[in-house]
Amino acid sequence: MQLAVRIVATWLGLAALSVAHAAATVLTNFTLIDGTGRTPASASALIVDDVRIAWVGPRSSLKLPAGATVLDLSGKFVMPGLIDSHVHLGLVNDLAQDIRFYSRESVQQQLRIYAAYGVTAVQVLGTDTDVIFSIRADQRKAQPEMARVFTSGQGLVFKGSYGGVAGLNRPVANEAEARQAVDEQVAKGVDFIKLWVDDEFGDLPSRMPAEISKAIIDQTHKHGLRAIAHIFYLDNAKTLASQGIDGFAHSVRDRPVDQQLLNDMKRRDVAQVAATLSREASFTYTKLPFLDDPFFSRSITPAALATLASTERQQQLAAGKHFSEYPGVLETALKNTRREIEAGVRYGVGTDSGPSGRFAGYFLHWELQLMVQAGLTPLQALTAATGVNARLIGAKDLGTIEPGKSADLVVLDADPTRDIRNTRTIHSVYVAGKAVPTIWSLCTGRAANECKGGSEGGAHGER
Ligand SMILES: [Zn+2]
To answer: What positions belong to coiled-coil segments (predicted)?
Structure first.
């Protein structure tokens, strides 16, 4: 029997499965959502050979490799690992935010939380210290047990304008400095370049001038990389689109997008890399509406949860200078996302998680829900967060379930194409073919007793 299977495997060109890697894993009897946008396929199977997908297709065509571990996933749904196209790492300790918290340990801790939520890759938008390059190098030469990271190092901020993190991003004042800063980031090995064009509701004296953003985009393209911009205002988005920007990291949020911008985005393939609807939605609350949801609280410390629920915090947020403006900003972001979808602009899914109060992992599930609210079907939202996001971040071997791709997978108990909130029914998560914990409490990363009576456990334990 074993010999026969080996012969079949050799015939399929998969000899390595049964010989070199006796430990192939077969998942079978599930509904496949492959990340390409194709209609989900029931009664599917796939073979994971070490770190990659070796085969995927109908269960009826499955040729079982010798010695394979077979997992029967009857009633389950398998999709590619989710990708968050806009995050920040290592900036917070609970709700306190400070660049001094950034360390190999704090970043890896957050990457484990992302993976536990089924987010197996993240793109960081311009607030990494140089520690990120060794974290990324380690991931790329071994089998990561956390979300994969794509980085833009230190993004570019214009002096006196909005953006970046104090003590990390060195503002530029002219074109020469801007070009030099791009060269410096490229020399470090960034995956792309980030720039900010904003003045925080006019609170700051300036926004990045057009000649500086043009210099940054041109210099980035000289190196063959993508430039992605933080925007808020329609007029800046239009200027950047005409200058050849590759993508926007947020929605236009001051007014409705117009036909000229939509035409330019389509003609020049400017992607809406992230709409960050969950970011805008989070600002509209003094108390987040999901503090009691175990899917949220399981990765938050009891101390942080208590602060999030406290009267002091609610009073402080309600007294914020721009608090009353946020519902309008969210409404504009939702409407502009809908207009872009209808116009045929290319869109990804990203949250801007990572700064204080915007939480790794959970927010991507919220973002998917809001993208559906903005007009996508659940399947379109899932495709955007997997196959499309992988292309937008330049990750050729991620995002879809196809032979040769990395075996980064999420197994769900319920159908996310029927109700997008079913992405939260996480059964298991694989990164590079290896199951990773689906609970990663900040407490277990520290002394366990810190979480007594707190957020560990819950409805979706490791299974
Ligand atoms: Zn951001």
So the answer is: none
Ligand 1 centre and the CA of 195: distance in Å? 10
- List the one residue out of 410, 416, 316, 370 whose CA is nearest residue 82: 410
- Enumerate the H helices of 95-155 as residue ranges: 104-116, 131-141
The CA 41 to ligand 1 mean position distance, Å, reads 36
What are the pLDDT digits (tens) for 56-101?
999 999 999 999 999 999 999 999 999 999 999 999 999 999 999 9
Residue 189's domain spans which residues? Answer: 82-392
Asked if residue 453 is part of any domain, the answer here is no
Give residue 274 CA to ligand 1 midpoint distance, Å: 10
Distance 40 CA to ligand 1 centre (A): 32
Taking the centre of ligand 1 as the mean of its atom positions, its distance from the CA of residue 196, in whole angstroms, is: 9
Q: How confident is the model at residue 443 (pLDDT cuts 50, 70, 90)?
A: low
Residues whose CB is less than 8 angstroms from the CB of residue 17 and which lie 6 or more positions away in sequence, other chains included = 9, 24, 47, 49, 54, 65, 66, 68
The pLDDT score that the predictor gives to residue 200 is 95
How is residue 274 written in tokens? 């992230």
Mean pLDDT of 426-454: 73
Q: Please give the Cα distance from 351 to 255 (Å, whole number).
A: 20
Q: Kindly state whether residues 35 and 122 are assigned to the same domain.
A: no
How many Cα atoms occupy the beta-carbon half-sphere of 357 within 13 Å? 18
For ligand 1, the distance from its centroid to the CA atom of residue 414, given in whole angstroms, is 31
Let me know if residue 445 belongs to a domain: no
- Residue at 192 is within a domain: yes
Model confidence pLDDT, tens digit, residues 231-259: 999 999 999 999 999 999 999 999 999 99
What letters, b where the CB count within 10 A reaches 16 and e where it falls short, cover 223-237? eebbbbbbbbbbebb
Contact (Cβ atoms closer than 8 angstroms) between residue 32 and residue 56: yes
The count of domains in the chain is 2
Residues 337 and 410 in one domain: no
Average pLDDT over residues 140-165: 96
Q: Are residues 28 and 63 in the same domain?
A: yes
Q: Token match 């946008």: residue? A: 37
Question: Can you give the pLDDT at residue 440?
Answer: 82
Tell me how far the alpha carbon of residue 125 lies from the centroid of ligand 1, in angstroms.
6
164 C-alpha vs ligand 1 centroid, how far in Å? 9
Using the mean position of ligand 1's atoms as its centre, give its distance from the Cα of residue 154 in Å.
Answer: 12
Clarify whether residues 383 and 418 are in a common domain: no
Q: Are residues 151 and 112 in the same domain?
A: yes
> Looking at the domain assignment, is residue 444 inside a domain?
no
Quote the ligand 1 centre to 212 CA distance (angstroms).
20
Distance 69 CA to ligand 1 centre (A): 41
Q: Domain boundary at 392, 426, 447, which?
A: 392
